[in-house]
Structures are given as structure tokens and as C-alpha cells.
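User: C-alpha cells for this one?
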Amino acid sequence: RYPSPAREVGHRRTARPKMLSLASSYTAFGFAPGAAAAVLPARRVMIAAASHPAMSATGTETLDFTGGALRNNKDLTDTDLTRMGRRARPNIDWSNLRARLEVEFGFKEEELKQYDDVSKADLLKGYEMMQLCRQFENACNQAYMQGHIRGFMHLDNGQEAIPALIADAIKPGDKAVSYYREHTHALAKGVSPDAIMAELWAKDGGTCRGTGGSMHIYDKETNFQGGWALVCEQLPYAAGAARSILLDRQLDPDGTKDDDRIAVVFVGEGGAQNGRMAECLNAAAKENLPLLFIVIDNGRAINTFTPDVAANNDVFEQGQHYGVPGIRVDGGSMEQTLKTGRAVVDYVRTKGPAIMQVHTYRFQGHSPADPEHERGRKDEKKWARAEADPIKLFEADEAASGLDLDGALKSVKAVVKQSLDFARESPPPPAELAKELEFPDAPSTDYNARPPPAGADAITRATTDPEALATCEAHVAELQSLAKRGEISIADAVNLAVLEEMLRDPTTVCHAEDLQAGSSYNIPKLTQQTFGKLRGADEIIDEGHFLGKAIGEGMNGYRPIVEMMNTNFAIYAMAEISSAGNTFATTGGQFQMPLTIVGAGGTAPNQALGAEHSQPFHAYIMGIPGLKIGAAASPDAAYGMTKSMIRDNGPCFLFLPVKMMKETKGHAAVGECMPINKCKLVHKASDDAVAGGRAVTVLTYLHGLKECQSVLPEIQAEGLDIDLIELRSLKPLDMETIRDSLARTHKVAILDESTNSGGVGATVSALIHEQCFDLLDAPVKRLCMDDAPVPYASSMEVAVVKRGSDVVKAVFDFMLKKI
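Assistant:
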């Protein structure tokens, strides 16, 4: 097995038994971790090793090439590491890389020959891209200091070999997903420099019309899909983009028979330590996704030296557990980066996922907004600018002889100047654009009028096993019969809606844990058995990872449905839910986000699930912009709202009552979509009670509906009555229906399945006081959960969770003027 590169100087590694020190043996293969200026020839190292008494079979030695001496890592101080430059360039030549490509990637000798040379023309193009990136970032830095660019901005100086590779090997149809240091990646993908600069200047001519800024560059035309600001969130989005390529091939095999598209995702070496990396490597290996992980290894967090906090900096080896090959290349050498990158990209196009770790140096601090107080950073940068600048190294290389480097530099300076002029002259976006980009579809949309894609039925039948399809259609017919007879449960109503929409629209896909078995409530039942593993994806137990893949699919033409086995588990996906809500606006309206999240949750009285399974997650996400949030406590609502949300072009979250999923049964209007912006007047107080001032408006949702219905006879027995309104749309809130009721009753109580602080009831109460104050005869009465965690024991839970008896008391208190 071909040996892996050694870790950087100062990092401990245990040698294998009966072998030389890893540092020495790796050096023999050309992977020297020491300073480039003092690397000993491999033969001399091996001779020295053979006679050195310190090189025992169990040692953890590291060679200090500044003096050629062998020292234990534990003896190396921060001063030593700083003196050695902290991170020397890896001594990797093309023969080493070639050998690894042969052993780890399975390339044959004849195949590798095509990568041995890079033409003069391609080298010049690569140099020109590096200079474009350098000059563009320098201009950005100056504009930032002048106040034209605001907020956070992250520059890429010193890492230009990576965009040179992207421009060289990545095709227009390939999908690129990056993080917040993405200007140069966008340039290399073909995004207009004018539009990028205008975005940074917050202008309407920017890639996202000024809504995204430096950390959120998107361009649908060139398939550049971010610019994501939360570290590592881009990884599952890229996996979803790669899945969309496979879905395209499955749904249109004739039209994609020559398709060799891939997705490429950029991540830092520190970010690659995040659990999302393992989850996405598993997903990429399991489904053989055409996904390239480019690990940008500049050795630094904002300030911290990565080896200080990471036990393993050989990120390219992370895929070994999953059968995903990896390789590390010196980003100081553009030529080697191009050669290696071409081979790795071809591997991903034809065989499957791979990791390419590019060893670089970041010349600037994390951001111009951050103070530069990194330990040893100034000395390192001074050395790196002189000895590890990929542009200077190429200019001094024999490969650059005869190339018109001056002409290339002159050309890119003109491009950068044009981008600055364009940004300066572009107008700012209008203020009203912010509200226009809140939702892709207006909340009042009639989803019954939305047709399926052209040829949908033919595509479904051509890509589905006839026997499996017949089984699914028989199951759907059975559920439809139950719905018409008023015998369908909430859970089965959602399953019916999901299957109907997946039959109707082949771009609809489903993700869930335990999906093959129907999960806990049969919501995704028969999805995989009918539509296959791509459209019906059974997932590992991490909600953020598979919701992130759904986001990537949603950005690429699909309508993902994500079932949360319990909505409290979506806490693991809070970052992804937040980004789903922001994406349409942040991309300037370029990327819609047709994503439906559905699951059982909430807090029923006496549910005995304890605090973690009784959290009001619906309240937690109320503040996320761009998200439509619904709650359905009946089969008809669950069915009709699920269908509408699946057809909506934005992110929607439907909450279902966990303790009513199977027991509550009723009718559902088969084939009909229901509004997702309206409340439901479930029971109307009698005219007599209203006329006598003995009626109260009661607002509730989820389990609260059942609680209120159960005590309605008790209230009516006293000559009182209520307008019972189910809050099916938590966001946006249907104030029209609430106002109409208050115009009759002038009193309102809210049975709220969330906490006193920051709960849904708090928001509803505030809006009523702001918009309906003139209709109130008394303050709003909130019957909400206490801020204390929900206990398991019912004797304690009664003090935290409100129920029907509390509604009765509130109605009586209104009549007795106690409120």
C-alpha cells in the first residue's frame, strides 16, 4: 500500500512496529515534512536512519530539517515551531502523486500518461486565473478599507492554485458549492467579475442583487451554488447537488446518457474535522455520488494553528473508512495541482467520490474585520509570501519560460478595473425588494391550480417497477377509501398525500430515518419500495445531514420531503432549517427552495415523554425568515396542507400532534390542496351566547384542539360558548379570521403548546394587541407551558403543561371579570 504523506512538523504520530520512523520513511518516498530549503535527499535520510539509535520501532520522532537533527515531538516548543515556519511546504513531486493515483485511485500506467504534461496554453490560462484572483482580492481589500464593502469579507490570497484548477478541470454543467471565502471559486466557475464585485458593494447589479454580500455569492447560470456562511453546512448541500445529478440520470436516461457532471465542494482542513464530513463521506460512498471534496488546507482557523486542536490533519485519508480515495498536493505548485486535479476530477466523473487536500498558505488574516493577533502568524506570512506564493513560484519555474505573463497580468488588471467601475456605477437595490423576496410563492397561492411537470405520468411509469407501482396504487386507493368514509388517521392521511404527490410529480423525493419500514407513523410508507432508493432515501440517524441533502436537491430542481420521526430531533438540523428559510432571499431570488419538512411533535397532557421529547420546536423556528409553518390536528388538515406544502416553491414545516397520529380519525377531501395561510373556525359560538356577552374566542393548535373539544360540553352546560379556532397556519398568521371572531366575542384565550417566554402564544398575543386592541374588552389570556422543562411524572407535569381544564377556568374567569 502506498504510504501517506507525513504530518506537518510538530505533530505526533506513532510509528508502526518494526518500521523506521514514519517521518523518515515518508521522506524516502518524497513526502518530507521539514522546511523546503533544507530537505535532505531521500537516500541520505535512509542511510542516516539506519544508523541512528533514536529511531526505534516504537518512537514518535520528527525530523527537524533546519539542522537535520532528529528530535521527539514533545521536545519541540512553540518557539521551535515558529522558527521552522510552523508549516513548511510539503516536498511532494509528480512521481509521488502519480504513484498514489495508481495505488489509491486505481489508475493504470497508460491512463496516467495523459496527465504527465500540461500544455503551455493551459499553463498560461492557469496563471491568468491565479492573477485574476490575486488582483481581484487586492481590489476587494482596498475597497473594504475605503468603506465600499462592509460586514465580513474573507480573502483568498495565497491559495490561487485552487481556482486555477477549477477553471481548468471543472465544466460549466458541474455544480460548485463553497463556503464564505468563495470569491475566487466563483471567478473560476465563470461567474462575472462585475457581478461579484457589485454584490460585495451591495449593489442591485450584484450576483444576488445585494442581498447576499461577500459570504453569499450565487449564480444559477454557472451552477455556482454558494457561498455559505456557517462552517461545514455546505457539505450536505453538495451531496444533495450530487444526488440531483443521479436523479436526473434516473428520470431521463436517454437525455443524460453522455452526462458526466459532478459536484465539487470546498471545505477547510479545520472544517473537515466536523461530523458533517463523516456523514457526507458515508452518503457519497453509499450512493457512489459524483462528488469531489476539495480540502483547502491553510493550517489555520481564525487564529489557531490547526494541529493544535486537530489530532489528524491528513484529511485526505478520512475516506479510507468508506472506500473513498484521497490525495494531498502542494498548492504552491500550480502545475502539480492541475495535473493531480485533472486525474482526480476524471476519477469522480467516471468512478465515484474522492478527496483532494491542497496544502496552501493564507496570506491575509481571517478577515479584514478581524484583528491579526495569531501566534507566530506574522513570521509565517512573511516567510510564505517569499517562499510559498504560487504565483511567484510559477513565474520562477522553467515551465513559465516563453509565456506572456506580462500580457496576462495586464489583461486581468483591466478586468478588475472594469468590475470596480461596474460596481461603482450600479444602483443600490430598492428597499421593497427585501419583502418581495420573503417567499417564492405568495401565502395565498391556490395549489390546486398548480399543474404537474410536463410528461410526469409517463416519466413515473417509465422509471418505476410495474409491480411495485401497482402495489402502491392499490395502497393509495385503500387510503382514499378510508378518507372518504371518515376513517383515516392523521398519519395515514399524510402518507396518502406523500404518495399521491410522488406519483403525480417525479421530481418529488422523500428522506426519512427507518424509511423502509415506514418510520414511526407510516408517513414515508412504500416510498422506497415504489420509487427506489434515490427518490425514497432511507437515512442514517442525523437530521441535519439528510435535511441538508434535501436542500441541495431543492436547489437543483427537485421537491424533497423530509420526515422528522419526532420534530424535536430537528434540533440537530437547526442550521439547515435556518439556511433553507434564507436561501431564496439570500440568492436574490435565483434559487427557490421547494422543501417540505413534516413530523410529529408537540406536548400533549400526560404524554410522559420527558423534557427532550416535549420541546416546542415550532416556537424555536418561528423567528426564521422565509419559513412557512403549519400545524394540523385533524386528518383533513394534515392531508390538504401536506399536499400544498409539497407544491409550494419555498420551505414549509408542518407539525403534527404526536399523541394523536393514529387515534384521531376522520375525513379528508381526496385530491384537494388546502390553504396553508388560514386558520380554521372549528366551532362557532351560538348567536345567543355572543349577544349575551357569554362567548370567548379560543385559539389553539396541535393537541390543544382535542383538549378544547373535550371540554366544550362543560362550557356550554353553563350557558357559555366559544369560537374555537385552530391555528393551522402559525406563520404567516391569519389575523383576518382572528379579527372576525374578536369582533363578535371581544375576549380571547390562547391554549398554547409552547413556553411562556418566546412561545407561539406570545407572538399571537402581541399581534392581537397591536392589530385588534380596539376589539378587546379584556387582556389576552395566555394558557401556555411554564418555562420549566416538561417532567415525566404526571403529578409534576400538570404544573407545566396546560390543558382543557385550564380553558374552562379561563372562560369562567372572563365571565367573572377576573381577567
